[in-house]
Amino acid sequence: MQKPPAQKPPAPKPPAKKKQLKKDHGWSWQGLSIDAADLRKVNVFLARAKKAEHTITPQVRSIARKTKATVVGFDERKRSPESVKRSVARDMQNNPTETVDEALDKIYNSVRYILQWPDASYVKGVKDTTGLLAKWKNANLRWSNTWARPRGYKGINTAWRANDSGHPYELQFHTPESQAAQKRSSKLYEEAHHPKTSGSRRAQLQTQMNRNYASVPCPAGAQLLNAPRRRAMERPGVTTR
Q1: In which domain, by residue range, is 210 found?
Q2: Which of 36, 48, 81, 177 is least crowded, fewest Cβ atoms below 10 Å from its Cβ?
Q3: What does the CA dihedral 26, 112, 78, 92 come to, rounded to 10 degrees?
Q4: Number of domains in the chain
Q5: For 81-99, what is the mean pLDDT?
């Protein structure tokens, strides 16, 4: 009588594969880059901007009602994360010793708004707006009035630090004509600031933008509008981080 064939021992199970953690490679775009550690700081900044917008927007809406302003481009009030990353990366590329914190300190427009008044009520609208911002203890960080400029952009671009969140945001003050010129120039501006745009092409784009703004009338007295007194607007000890 033959013995049954010996059964082979079961094959050992392959070792369980270790769960692979997702590797953080940072961020890059057309020659610009942010490493993983700096990208985490950028993302924290963007999260704070998103949260701050919820309290800044009601104030801007209130200002628009009180000063009879039109809020232009409201749906674009939050700057896209990719746009912020491009600005930070470009700034750090142009300034090799600069840290990501220093680059982020220059980003005033992660939250942004455009207020527009007709020419006849523009100066009063701007003055009433700055008065309300002072009353609500928003600190002025930047004031750029280009109405007196012979060529190029026309309008007033300002930046403020929100009293409650401490986050910076941008307010632009326009007339219908200056806002229309800005809209016509927006794509030209983007191309002019693209890292691969040549110097000669930038000059052509600037010439076209100058033409767009050349016919924009300056509201009476707009070129004399100055930033509010800093001592009345400051809130010591507030930072974005």
Answers
A1: 35-226
A2: 36
A3: -10
A4: 1
A5: 95
